[in-house]
Write a structure and sequence with these properties.
334 residues; rRNA_ssu_MeTfrase_C; methyltransferase activity; Mtase_sm_N; alpha/beta; seven-stranded mixed β-sheet; single chain
Length: 334
């Protein structure tokens, strides 16, 4: 099986035995999923793909193999998240463990030289191709706690927890703010009549889940990003609110559960690339996860092609708000 992504194509051409190595935060790539290593990832979609092949996986919130033969860290577009992964590896794995860092030039892989130097870790360039770079070093104790990356901030009268790599890290984004402005009226009848089983899909830092829980909704919050799930759990706890937070690739963890409303500010990027796949699934499969009369409420950039998807899935929709940058859509299951 040949590598599919540029970063994996660069790794594939190395005269190197990666058996027994730990792949950290990689993309989906069939070459990686041939069983030559184990996975450490906060991406539930990637973990599910590996698990379907019977391959070993872990999240950074679980115990991992304490002594892999080596580690390959796929540098993410969020440099703060890349630095967190590096600190996590230095804290949890034995000093001296071989570490390779790989990433796209446009994704900032060349910055790892300065990051490693600041931590006192030596580094050498191994290879470059496909507009990607590969660097090598060894792990060592650096005396910095990776948990210091967690931060909290105030928004909408709530205390929110956030982590690098979580959507809208450290601030309330304008699209979510527009959606929040429409929720009191859109959900008034449902909440008043006790029809408050609500799914926050793509929960991020938990702002929507906490806002809904504070108003008496029975909230289930999901995200494909394990850092977002943990952030939402921390947000609910910080505000003394009840709710369930699950790692889920769109609806994958929900089975046949149905809700009175689904609320979302869905992503449309995968790293630097535009990807409508998750949002498309969210819309297409929403009727299967709504009770009769249940509604889908989502906010999206105005240019995104969601009207056609909503029409095909629900037969129609309405626009509750439009500030030229973002639109809030509502579609109701008959």
């Amino acid at each position: 099986m040949s590598a599919e992504t540029p970063v994996c194509q660069l790794l594939e051409r190395q005269a190197f035995d990666y058996r027994g190595w730990l792949w950290v935060a990689p993309p989906r790539d069939a070459w990686l999923e041939t069983g030559q290593g184990s996975l450490l990832s906060a991406d539930q979609a990637v973990r599910t793909a590996w698990q379907a092949r019977g391959l070993p996986t872990a999240s950074p919130f679980e115990a991992v193999d304490a002594a892999p033969s080596g580690v390959v860290l796929f540098w993410p577009k969020s440099h703060a998240l890349g630095e967190w992964w590096l600190l996590w590896l230095c804290t949890h794995l034995p000093p001296g463990t071989p570490l390779q860092l790989v990433g796209e030039n446009q994704g900032g892989i060349k910055r790892v030289l300065k990051v490693l130097a600041a931590l006192g870790l030596g580094c050498r360039k191994v290879d470059s191709a496909r507009r990607c770079g590969l660097y090598a070093t060894r792990l060592d104790r650096v005396g910095i706690d990776p948990d210091e990356a967690w931060m909290s901030f105030e928004a909408e009268g709530l205390r929110l927890s956030s982590h690098p790599g979580v959507f809208g890290h450290g601030k309330l984004d304008d699209g979510t703010r527009l959606l929040l402005g429409e929720l009191p009226e859109a959900l008034e009848e449902a909440l008043d009549k006790g029809r408050g089983d609500i799914l926050d899909l793509g929960c991020g830092d938990g702002i929507l889940a906490a806002w809904l829980a504070r108003r008496g909704a029975r909230v289930t919050a999901t995200d494909v990003n394990g850092f977002a799930v943990e952030a939402t759990r921390r947000t609910l706890e910080a505000n003394g609110l009840a709710g369930e937070a699950l790692a889920s690739d769109v609806y994958s963890a929900l089975g046949t559960r149905r809700f009175d409303a689904i609320i979302s500010n869905p992503p449309f990027h995968q790293e630097r690339a535009i990807d409508y796949g998750p949002a498309g699934r969210l819309i297409r499969e929403a009727p299967e996860h709504l009770k009769p009369g249940g509604q889908l409420l989502l906010v999206a950039n105005a240019f995104l092609p969601y009207p056609d998807l909503l029409t095909r899935a629900f037969g129609g929709f309405e626009i509750l708000a439009d500030d030229r940058r973002f639109r809030v859509y509502r579609a109701v299951k008959a």
